[in-house]
Amino acid sequence: MRYCPRVMRRRVVVAASALIAAAALIGLPAPAGSTVSSPARVLEATTFVQVPILAGAPASEPGAVPDAALRAAGFLSDSGRLVERGSAPAAPAARPSVAQPSVSAVKAWKPPLYKLTGWATFYDNGTTAMRLPQGTVVRICGAGGCVLRTVTDWGPQDPARVVDLYRPDFFAVCGCASWSGTTWVTVSVY
To answer: Are 130 and 139 in contact (CB under 8 A)?
Structure first.
């Protein structure tokens, strides 16, 4: 008989599959439980024990100490007292004065690492796309105002553009008509 690797390989695969199936059947547990329901039986009255508790009776006799094995480590007897160590702090005579920094009318920004200027566009992806690492904080200012955003996408595709903005951010920065597609911006990178 001539040696044929394909036929031998098929036989080995079939034999291995049969061995795996046999091992799986041997290893599976038998179904648990009974398939026949147990008959209903009546509970005997002696199964239950009646414990009479009088409504006005005290739980234990006065002065009786419960078993020490059942008692908690912090057990407080009837004659015991709660004592707090130390004394209360004295009330301050007057409130201390605190020097408050002066507040200016202008909100101060920390200086950016660097600034970029160029064209910005919008797209409806819900992200701010720049050619910067994701997570970089940028402030984008245009004729209509400024927005502070975190870079969440890579872009824009056109190298002549600096940033792709989410549509509401674009029109907040642009301050232009809804038909506009680009606007000149300054991007401060923090």
So the answer is: no
User: In the chain, what are the domains?
Assistant: 114-189 (2.40.40.10)
41-61 pLDDT, tens digit per residue, is 787 877 777 777 666 655 555
Q: Hey, is 179 helix, strand or coil?
A: coil
95: Cβ–Cβ under 8 A, 6 or more apart, which residues?
Answer: none
Q: Using an 8 Å Cβ cutoff, are 140 and 163 in contact?
A: yes
Q: Is 89 helix (H, G, I), strand (E, B) or coil?
A: coil
The reported pTM is 0.45
pLDDT value for 42: 80
User: DSSP letters of 22-38?
Assistant: HHHHHHSPPPPS-SSPP
Exposed, middle or buried, 166 (CB in 10 Å: 0-12/13-18/19+)?
buried
- Residue 73 buriedness (CB in 10 A; 0-12 / 13-18 / 19+): exposed
Residues 163/129, Cβ–Cβ less than 8 Å:
yes
